[in-house]
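Hi R.,

Here's the chain you asked about this morning:
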Amino acid sequence: MQLYFYAKSGHTVGLEETKRCAAIANLLKEFNPILCTSDFRAGAFAKDNFGIKKYVNIDVVRNLHNIMQRGDILIYDTPEVTSEMKEDMKDFCSLLYGINDELSGIIVDTTIYLPQENPTLEKTLFFGDDDYNNQLIEMTKESEKFDINLLMGHYFFLGNEKLFANNFSKVIDEEEYVQTIQNSKYLLTASLQTALESLACGNHPVLFKRFDKNYNNELIKNLNLPIIESDNLKDLITEFDKIINNYPTITNFQITNFDNIVLEIKEKIEIFKKMTQL
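And the predicted structure, written out as tokens:
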């Protein structure tokens, strides 16, 4: 019996699903989970940065049956799964969990995102891991240079960092993602997952809503997380500076406890081991 994770990923999707799956996979590392990503680069990035040991490329969730065996356990984070597909997956798997369904709430790996006593970066912008349409490039055209760092996204096009050097005080490589989130006292980001990771580190994120993304507005409201809605870079940073000068109190920030899920999976695997030893 094998434990699998599947995360939708790619240059038009980003890595939010991968980050959530990696966080839960690390809680279940004693079971040697395998992370399946629809883009091979996402799995490699998770191995280098998020503690993942094993990963494979599975282009779509429908193809998981090519590597899984009946009775295996699956945890998935993808919008691909329809209600009909889910019924088939339940029949195939001994346990099945969907992130945002059976597993929900704030999912952050607290073994990685640790509070820093003295954050070394005052202000950082993280647009997201994906920018297939070069929105950030368009936002920086004919723009001034701002006193804020830029953390590059995993799927940004090669060479964009040279262009961004004209607009930001420092351009930080994607491979420094975890360290940058830990050490940025104030973070302006379009990624809700990254904002949650920043909060876990004791920092102060501000979420700006990209018009090509969907957001969990109920969670944002429940946290009292400050938001900005603008596609103008100067306006974004001006509003960001106003907010961090009077940063609101974050409420109800509680990382989801998955102890019951861990126990359920452990019991299922133990039963399987006993049955195969008979």
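Residues 121-245 form a domain with the Rossmann fold fold (CATH 3.40.50.2000).

Let me know if you need anything else.
M.
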